[in-house]
Structure formats: C-alpha cells, structure tokens
Amino acid sequence: MTQGVWGKLGGAGIGLAAGGPLGALLGAVAGHFLLDREGSLFGPTPREVVFTTGLVALAAKMAKSDGVVTPSEVAAFADIVQVPENERAGVERLFDLAKRTTSGFEGYARQVAEAFRDEPALLEDVLDGLFHIAKADGAIHESEARYLAAVAEIFGFDEARFAGITARHVRVADDPYEVLGVARSLSETELKARYRALVSENHPDRVIARGLPPAAVAIATRRLAAINAAYDRIAAERRLS
C-alpha cells in the first residue's frame, strides 16, 4: 500500500528532530503512526511533515475556538489532509490531541512561521487550508475569523494581504479585484500580466514540482480556481478578449 507523509521513521525520533510544540505533539502520539522518511533521525525535519502537522494542529485549535466540529468541516479537513486509509486513524489522534492540549495555537503558528519564513507562499497555503475548513459549514463564524486573523498576523501577513486571502473565500465585498490583489485602475495589459503571474505562482504542478505533500496540492488547486473565477468576472465586465 502506498505510504503518505506518515510512514517509516519512529514518531518519537521525528518529534525530537522537529522540536518545539509540534515536536511535542508528534512525540505524544509516537507509536500510533510513523513518518515516511529514509535516513537519519537527526537530520533536518522534512518540511512536508512540518507543513502537514502544523496544518492539523492549527485546524484542531480552530475547531476548539469555534466550540463545535460539524460533519462538513470534517469532510473539508479530509479533502485537505489526504492520507492513505490505514494512516487516517493516526492523523485523527493527532487532531484530537492538539485540540485537547493546554498549549495555545500561537506556539504552533510561530513554529510554522519560522519553518517557512523564507517561503511565504507555504504560509499562505496553510492559511488557505484553514479557511477552506472554516467555511465548510457555510459561514466563517466570528471566533473563526478572529482566529484566522491572529494566525495571519503571526505569519507576518499585513492587512492588505490578509484581505486578499479572505476575499478568495468570503465574498464580503464581492470584489474580484481584491481576490487578485490589484487595483481597479490597472490597465488591461497590467491586469493580464498580474493574472498570468498568479497562475504561474499558484499552479498545482508547481507545488508538485517543489515536492510538497498532497495537502498543499489540494490547497493550490482550490486557490487557482478562485483566481481563475475572479479573472473571468473581471474579463466579462471589461469585455476583454
């Protein structure tokens, strides 16, 4: 059977390698599932492990902040965090433990931010994944909105960038220009150039080429769909060829 992010190395060892609150979380569930990596336990922690573990932990804390986990949110979580069926129970244990720990979400968010400080696109992937889960029940509730804004701040996103990310998921102002992060005054040439750059940056094939886990690919696919939909609306309004 194909193994996913979780596979061959002992959970305790990778927990030690990861360090911090995410390492403690992994160490706490060691023995329930293993991690898919060859080589030394003491080398750099694979970034896909940090990415997926961080996303699971932050999703769990978001669920706790909302106070209830709906079936639609569970389904959205499964859409994003895709693992082989034989590894699903381990990920669910990780989620449940993260939700129950007394540690705050801030520690998890800071560790993810530090791990990907030179790759802000990955931090945006994590935030997009959290938005996808939060909106699954048809609305992003006030507690979830506050939580997402706090995570974005820890990740180093300013208000404008967070507004652009939010616009991909919530039609507060129903503004496709905000989704693309551009001004309405942009010329046709500038708009097309921005659109092509966004498609290139966010194409799932690029994510796959970077060796990222299925969770990141699923997030990129949804983000690209939002970008395409926003551009299509603008193109129709402007009657672009």
TrEMBL record:
Transmembrane spans: 12-35
UniProt cross-references to CDD domains, sorted A to Z: DnaJ (cd06257), terB_like_DjlA (cd07316)
Superkingdom per UniProt: Bacteria
All residue ranges annotated as the J domain in the record: 175-239
InterPro entries per UniProt: DjlA_N, DnaJ_domain, J_dom_sf, TerB-like
Gene3D superfamilies with a match to the protein in the record: DnaJ domain, TerB-like
Claim: Coiled coil is one of the keywords in the record: no
UniProt keyword Membrane present: yes
Signal peptide residues on this chain, from the entry's feature table: none
Protein name: DnaJ family molecular chaperone
